C-alpha cells in the first residue's frame, strides 16, 4: 500500500512539473512596427528582421500607447514623442473624443484611429498641449481617463498636464508643464507640486514634460526606463536629436535608467586607433559633450554603447568585444566572442 502511494505521489509530482513547464511562456521576438508584411512575423531568437533589417525586440517589451489628441493640438507635442516611441517598437494609436478629423495647429489633419468609446486598452496613456483645456473641460474625456484600467504609465507634454490634473492623476505628485502655464497649473490644482526649469518630471508611473520639444526628452526617458538607456541613445542618434542630455529632468523614483552609466575616466581606456574590417582604420574617441564613445569611420562619428564589462554595441545593436592582454591593457576588439581580432594600433 505504501509503495503504491509513493508511486502515485511521484507520478503526480512529475505530471505537475511537466504541466508547469508547459505553462512557462517562451520568449518570442518581433519586428518593430514598420507597416510592412514582417509586422506580423514572430521569431524564436533575437537578431535582425530578414525583410526590413530592423533589430528584433522581445514581444513582451512591445507596449501599446494611446495618444489622446484634441483639435488644435500642437504638432511637435505629439509628433516628436510619436517618432521616439515608434522607433522603440511600441504600437502607437490615436484617440479623440469623436471620430471627426483633428486639425493640428490649423495645418495638419489627423484622422483618429479610435474614439473614447471604442479605444482598446493601452499600457501608456499620453496627452499633449495645444487647446488642452477643451479636453480637460470635457467630462466624458476625463471620465474615460479615470476609467482606464491597469495603465502602466501616464505621459504628458506641455499643457497636456492639465488633462491629467483634471483627472486627479497628478494629485500629490510633482509635475511640470509649458513655461507660460506653470503658475496656472499650480493655482488651478493646488494638490500638485509644480516645478519650474525642468525638461521633465518622473514620478515613477507618471512622466510630465515642459513644452513642445521637451516631449522628445520625456519620451526618450520613457524608452530608457522601459527598453534600456542604450536603446534610447540609439533612437536619439537616429533622429539626430543632439539636444538630448542624459537625465536632464527631475527623477523622483528609484527606477533611474542613468545610474549605471560608465564613468568617463574608465571609457578613456578604450580610446585609440584600431584596425577596421575593410582594411582601413577607425578612431575611437570620447565625446566630451555627451560623455560617450564614438567610432570615427571615414570621418563620420558613430556612437558605441557600453553594455557590460568590455562589451559594447553599435548603432545596429551588434556586439563589440574589446580584448585585453595579461596586464589589462586594451589590445583590440572582435565582432563576435571568438572572432577575428582587429588590433589596436
From TrEMBL:
Q: Which domain of life is it from?
A: Bacteria
Q: Record keywords: Signal included?
A: yes
Would you kindly state one Gene Ontology biological process term found in this protein's UniProt entry? regulation of DNA-templated transcription
Membrane-spanning parts: none
Q: Where is the signal peptide?
A: 1-19
Query: What Pfam family is a match for this entry?
Result: DJ-1_PfpI
Give the DJ-1/PfpI domain ranges: 63-223
Keyword list (alphabetical) reads: Signal
Protein name as it appears in the record: DJ-1/PfpI family protein
Amino acid at each position: 500500500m505504501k509503495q503504491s502511494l509513493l508511486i502515485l505521489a511521484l507520478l503526480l509530482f512529475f505530471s505537475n512539473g511537466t504541466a508547469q513547464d508547459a505553462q512557462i511562456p517562451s520568449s518570442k521576438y518581433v519586428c518593430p512596427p514598420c507597416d510592412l508584411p514582417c509586422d506580423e512575423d514572430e521569431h524564436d531568437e533575437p537578431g535582425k528582421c530578414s525583410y526590413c533589417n530592423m533589430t528584433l525586440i522581445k514581444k513582451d517589451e512591445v507596449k501599446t500607447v494611446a495618444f489622446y489628441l484634441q483639435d488644435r493640438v500642437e504638432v511637435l507635442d505629439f509628433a516628436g514623442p510619436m517618432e521616439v516611441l515608434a522607433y522603440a517598437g511600441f504600437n502607437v494609436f490615436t484617440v479623440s473624443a469623436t471620430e471627426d478629423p483633428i486639425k493640428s495647429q490649423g495645418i495638419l489633419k489627423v484622422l483618429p484611429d479610435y474614439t473614447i468609446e471604442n479605444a482598446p486598452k493601452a499600457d501608456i496613456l499620453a496627452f499633449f498641449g495645444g487647446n488642452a483645456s477643451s479636453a480637460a473641460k470635457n467630462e466624458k474625456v476625463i471620465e474615460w481617463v479615470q476609467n482606464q484600467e491597469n495603465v502602466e504609465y501616464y505621459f504628458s507634454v506641455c499643457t497636456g498636464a492639465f488633462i491629467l490634473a483634471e483627472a486627479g492623476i497628478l494629485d500629490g505628485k510633482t509635475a511640470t508643464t509649458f513655461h507660460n502655464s506653470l503658475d496656472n497649473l499650480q493655482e488651478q490644482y493646488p494638490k500638485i507640486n509644480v516645478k519650474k526649469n525642468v525638461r521633465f518630471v518622473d514620478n515613477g508611473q507618471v512622466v510630465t514634460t515642459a513644452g513642445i520639444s521637451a516631449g522628445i526628452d520625456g519620451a526618450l526617458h520613457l524608452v530608457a526606463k522601459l527598453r534600456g538607456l542604450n536603446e534610447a541613445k540609439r533612437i536619439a542618434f537616429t533622429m539626430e536629436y543632439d539636444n538630448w542630455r542624459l537625465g536632464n529632468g527631475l527623477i523622483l523614483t528609484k527606477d533611474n535608467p542613468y545610474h549605471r552609466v560608465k564613468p568617463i575616466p574608465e571609457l578613456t581606456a578604450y580610446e585609440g586607433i584600431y584596425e577596421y574590417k575593410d582594411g582601413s582604420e577607425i578612431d575611437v574617441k570620447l565625446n566630451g559633450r555627451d560623455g560617450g564613445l564614438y567610432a570615427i569611420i571615414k570621418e563620420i562619428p558613430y556612437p558605441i554603447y557600453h553594455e557590460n564589462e568590455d562589451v559594447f554595441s553599435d548603432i545596429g545593436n551588434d556586439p563589440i568585444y574589446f580584448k585585453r592582454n595579461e596586464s589589462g591593457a586594451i589590445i583590440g576588439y572582435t565582432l563576435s566572442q571568438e572572432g577575428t581580432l582587429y588590433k589596436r594600433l
